[in-house]
Amino acid sequence: DAGVIQSPRHEVTEMGQEVTLRCKPISGHNSLFWYRQTMMRGLELLIYFNNNVPIDDSGMPEDRFSAKMPNASFSTLKIQPSEPRDSAVYFCASSSPGTGYEKLFFGSGTQLSVL
Amino acid sequence: AQTVTQSQPEMSVQEAETVTLSCTYDTSESNYYLFWYKQPPSRQMILVIRQEAYKQQNATENRFSVNFQKAAKSFSLKISDSQLGDTAMYFCAFMVPGGSQGNLIFGKGTKLSVKP
User: Mean pLDDT over residues A28-34, rounded?
Assistant: First the structure.
C-alpha cells in the first residue's frame, strides 16, 4: 500500500488567495483526519470524518476553513481567503477498525506558506 | 481537559547508548491510549509504540520500550542502542477511545539528536 498520500508537498501563496490541500487515505480506511502543526501550538486536530461524514469539526479555526470528503478515497481542506497566520504543516491521517481506530497513519504533510 | 507535557525540548545521545524521553499527562479518564510518534526531517509522523492504559505490562517494540506509570500519569520512552536514524522529533500523544475519535492530544515534542 502507498500509504496516505497528500498533495501538494509544498504550497506558497499570497494572502487572500484560495488554497486547496488534498488527501488520499489508505484504501479500506474509513476514518480520515486533518491535523495542523505549528511551532506555537504544536499538532492540533482540525476535523475528522467517519465513512465520509464529518463527525467533529470543532478544531476548524474559523469559517475560512472548510473540508470535504466526497468519497472514500479523497478529501480536501480549503482555506479561502488565506492569511499569513495559516502558514503551517497540514497533515492528513487515516485509520480503520481492522488496524485499530486508535492507530493513525499519517501522510507526509503539506507545508503551506502564506506571504 | 486532557494535557500532555514533554519537559525536555532537546536531548542528545551518543550512538549505541540508551536514552529516555519523558512524558506526563493529565486526565480523569480511566481508559485511554498513549503513543510515541517519531517525526524525522522527512516530516512524516511515524508511530513508534502504543500502550493501552488497562494493560499493566509495558509495551516494547524492538529497541523501543516504555515505562508506563498509570498512578503517576507518566509515560516515558526508552531507546536502546541508539542509531543515527533515530535522530528526530519525538511526540508523546494521548487518546480517549470513543467520543471525539482520533483526537490525539500531542505534547510539544522532544528533539533527539544521536551523535556518532
Answer: 92
A103 and B109 in contact by Cβ < 8 A? Answer: no
A40 to chain B nearest CA, in Å? 9
A53 touches chain B (CB under 8 A): no
- Reference B69, options B102, B25, B28; nearest CA is B25
Mean pLDDT (chain A) is 92
Report the alpha-carbon distance of residue A52 to residue B4 in Å, rounded.
Answer: 30
Q: Is any Cβ of chain A less than 8 angstroms from the Cβ of B31?
A: no
Q: Are B33 and B53 in contact (CB under 8 A)?
A: yes
* Mean pLDDT calculated for residue range A14-36: 95
Cis peptide before A54 (omega within 30 of 0): no
